[in-house]
Amino acid sequence: MRRRLPIFLLVALLLVSAAAVGRAAVAKQGNVLVHFDADFAPHALPRKTPAPIRVTIEGAVSTTDGSHPPALKSLEIELNRNGLLYAKGLPACSPSLLQSTSTSEAKARCGSALVGHGNFSADLALGSTRPVKATGVVLAFNSRRAGKPALLLHFFGGVPVRFTLVVPLRITRHAEGEFGTVLRTRIPKLANGFGSITQIDLSLGRRWSFAGNRRSYLSAACSAPAEFTTVPFTFARARFRFEGHPEIRSELPKTCRVR
Fold this sequence. Notes:
- By secondary structure, the protein is mainly beta.
- The chain has helices spanning 95-98, 103-110, and strands at 5-6, 25-29, 32-41, 44-45, 51-52, 54-63, 72-80, 83-85, 114-124, 132-145, 148-159, 163-173, 179-186, 195-204, 207-210, 213-216, 218-220, 230-242, 248-258.
- It has one domain (5-258).
- It has 2 helices and 19 strands.
- The strands form 3 sheets. Strands 2-3-6-14-9-10-11-12-13-7-18-19-4 form a 13-stranded mixed beta sheet, with helices on one face. Strands 1-8-17-5 form a 4-stranded antiparallel beta sheet, with no helix packed on it.
């Protein structure tokens, strides 16, 4: 039997709050502002049989007083079970292969497991009066942890400071309920705790052939009732914990339509 895990990814990698359907979410906790948007394509999907999709994610964190944004310590994202993640036949990458690697080195070592790519910005507090802005590339790799599916995010910054950050996301499953899959991680410290990622955009999706058939890393159906062709649903429910700040809890609504 083919093993499929419900997941409508993602990785809303960093930050989320409730907002109107189709609009970016904005959340405020103390002096921390979080902006998040995520989408999937195509929006028109079969009612029952999952079809291939691609997910795009955009997130940003800032402060109302212009101070250095706090570091994200951990996150937990529960994902709607109307989507599927399928990784059988797709190579898996180990975190140890990505440590201290550049983007090109990471691709050379784990390119066959690549499932996403994008860009990010970070603030590095390196002793100057104002944080240093760093930019780089983020890659997403299929992985395994304790024999179970996982996702690795590889951040590499080369301007103006060279650094690598590898973030493993553990994937577990709820047996029942609106949300089928849970992604959890504790975020490693960036620049010895003096850095924080402030912006990310990430595109996730992969097609490949296995056992004589074309496969898709991400696929989904639009489970609208028989009398409807468009339906709203909760894309994700998340908990974010920032250094020195209360937990942020929020939900991200979306819609799909039946084709």
